[in-house]
Protein: Transcriptional regulator, LuxR family
Organism: Brevundimonas viscosa
Amino acid sequence: MSLISGTADALLEQTLLTVESLNSAGSQRCVITRVTGFLEQFGFSAFGLTRLQRLPGAEPDVLLDAWPEGWAEHYREAGLFRHDPVVQHSLSVRDVFAWDEVPRDYLNDPKAATIPLEAAEFDMREGLCVPLPSALGVGSLWLGSARFERVPGLKRAVRLLAHHVFQAVEALPPTPAGVRALSVREGDVLAWIAGGKTTRDVATILNISEHTVGEHLKNIRRKLGTSNNTHSTVRALQLGLLRL
């Protein structure tokens, strides 16, 4: 039975199975794959996990990056964090909320008002945010979609999932300061390269150009502070960003 047309009990059961599967996830890529498989049933095509320390001027740490290609870079380079109405609302509430439930007062900032339009260009018109406040700061699980199914019990399910995703990531080998999470596509590219494929092979498998593969590998080296593909593979394995 589809979870969309099924019962709340069926949804809870599937959520618990996903949570249990996270216990054996040995890398960020593995966590992303298992969470994505669950979320796709409801129309979510992207998600991210962040943590914001309670320090003046702090920027969020990106713990998992499963956003559409290019969104994380655009978001960071355009300085959208301090204007994002979803971020601002997440700092003042504890319950799961849909993006369209954010009070419109946050949109009085002209830059904030453009963010939903910019996200829509990356096929993220709707979404949920799960605030995870703690003594050290505020973690958040962000779910994005063109349109998601608002089934009964979904908010409860993603709250349960969010806590365990956070725990699964925390259990991975610590990522040194300054090292950023790989995007889903970067993880895909590096996994194929680590498996012995050439850039041409990877381009064919992922249906992208060789130039794009090269750009992903360049971004991976920049994020990991490495000098070549072999070094990137070893470093990603050490950091738990990749599992062969």
Summary: The chain has a mean pLDDT of 88.
